[in-house]
Amino acid sequence: MSQSRRSFIGRLAGGAAASASVPALLRAEDIGALEGSSGVGFLGPQDLRRMDLLQIAAAALPSTQAADEDFWRLVKGAFPLREGLIFMHAANLCPSPISVQQRVFELTRDIDQDASSNNRRKFGELRERSRTALARFLGASNDEIAIVRNTSSANATVVNGLDLGPGDEVLLWDQNHPTNSTAWDVRAERYGYTVKRVSTPSQPTSKQELLDPFLAAMTPRTRVVSFSHASNISGVMLPAKELVAAAHAGGALALVDGAQSFGCLEVDLHDLGCDFYTGSAHKWFMGPKEAGVLYVRSELHADLWPTHVGIGWAGAVEGGARKFENLGQRDDAAVAAVGTTVEFHETVGTARVEARVRELAAVLKTSIAERLPGTTFLTPLDPALSAGVVVFVPPDFDPRPALTALYEEHAIAGAGMSGGIRLCPHIYNTLADVDTVLDAVVSVA
Length: 445
Hints:
Elements: H1 3-15, H2 22-25, H3 28-34, H4 45-60, H5 69-76, E1 86-87, H6 98-113, H7 117-120, H8 122-138, E2 145-148, H9 151-161, E3 169-173, H10 182-191, E4 194-198, H11 207-217, E5 222-228, H12 240-249, E6 253-257, H13 269-272, E7 276-280, E8 292-296, H14 313-316, H15 332-348, H16 350-371, E9 376-377, E10 390-393, H17 399-408, E11 412-413, E12 415-417, E13 420-423, H18 431-444
Parallel strand pairs: 1-11, 3-4, 3-5, 5-6, 6-7
Antiparallel strand pairs: 2-8, 7-8, 9-10, 10-13, 12-13
């Protein structure tokens, strides 16, 4: 065991000495045995012990203190990643931590053992606990949060739910995801409003450069400004708070698609000021599959029509944003495990999660620029203009064979994007992982 690890364990033992059970959990041989992949003995005692150690380690860190690599190795151990795999595909899909998977499996088993309405009544309360946790996590009120299926369904609720018609304009970023882009076009064909798209500089150097094209495109007819918080195709992050304020100043509503910020960045929706916010649990949030969030500002509940109306509508319509999750039969275990995912983020520390993602992304960008001169970055090197998505095109790059080699020869999961490589590191990645990825990228580029 390295000297740094010994000192880390020493700090933990000293900080948590008041608990009689802590020293046994922090014995050096135990931590050594728990390192590596959790693929063996999946969700067994070894995996649950990892979660115990992580909780102790996180509790020993002051909330404002950055964590060292020993801590992040414990975090990585909280995920059942295949041994040898380096996963940097968070913009598309993330693994869930062991605690979330365990909760989903436990509750799914519970339903399958007794699918009676009597047994399933408890899921109403569990759903409300998840809602409360999400509201706390996102800086919103309980009644402003709907737990839906994903970002796509949340976006569809807003696209289909606003009263728009001839003479109205919807302003979009041209880097929006199709569910926040093409979806508006399809509805415009039916109702006759106009969709306008805004292009931002390919190499932005300031927030104002990103804001100015939107300001120039807004007119008195603009009713909605709808944009991705961060782009999945370039990694550019828009100045969301300023853009929301500009939309409101012009009398328009603002939808922020948070697919690439929910679970990645610290988000305070009341501070952001947006009217609608959408996100998927399966991406940076690292939650259960087929669950997502729709935020609707309380003043707009009556103005947004629901896409789905079913059993329980009379009660749902009195519950604020709950009327937008009147979706019929759900995966109750997944909805309940959303709250467990918030608990995991809070255990690690929400500010610490964002800082770590930004740290890994910055190391990737800086090192690629140094080791592959001539590389074109679609993602700004300035961390104020980006988040966790890193997209770059090495010189003379041939995407298909390079991306195949990254996965098949180097066990690195990224993605091809915009003619280059997209890497999206998260808290289950270490700096050692980044070094390995850099070597592999240089070898295939």
